[in-house]
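fyi for ur records
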Amino acid sequence: MLIVEENDNWIATINCVRPVMIPLHSLADDVATVNRAIDLMGGPVILVGHSYGGFVITNAAYNNPNVKGLVYIAAHAPNEGILRQFL
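which gave:
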């Protein structure tokens, strides 16, 4: 996604949107699913997560050079070292 600021307005040009259905088996499985989708995109991505998806995108983005940004929409954005079960 390319975002350009123009006169205090944000204009987004989206090259490709790929929704990813996460299996909801475990956080590790869900992160692995998102990481496979990132690999298939083959370039820079911005991840968007809602609710529990915030945990998933945070973990999927960790040390992944193709992830250029994270967007949390009414999502959990955990602090470093915070696990989901402790919220």
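The chain has one domain: 19-86. thats all i got for now
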